[in-house]
Amino acid sequence: MKMTKTTLAAKVNILNGLTEGTYFCLDYAYGGVRLCKKSNNHGGLTDISEHMTMREMGLVLDSIINALYHIK
To answer: pTM to 2 decimals?
Structure first.
């Protein structure tokens, strides 16, 4: 199954729901994507992951979501 921006956005919404007070977003560039965290109220972002393909990002997000889900 092809990983789309819509699918990745849904996974990030789930991640944001599991982490109270932390806002994660995706940064797209050069055909790839990286996971970022909002660092201030002025639009600053902190990189959480390396730049990777959308398919790889889907797997990373699934892993983070599963880990957080099983901790709670």
So the answer is: 0.90
Angle at 12 between CA 7 and CA 17, to 5 degrees: 130
Structure tokens at 26: 């995706």
The distance in angstroms from the start CA to the end CA of the chain is 29
Give the tens place of pLDDT for each residue, 51-64.
999 999 999 999 99
Residue 68 Cα distances to 32, 40, 63, angstroms: 25, 23, 9
Angle of the 5-18 helix axis to the 54-71 helix axis, nearest 10: 20
Q: What is the DSSP string of 26-46?
A: EEEETTEEEEEEE-STTS-EE
Every domain of the chain and the residues it spans: 5-71
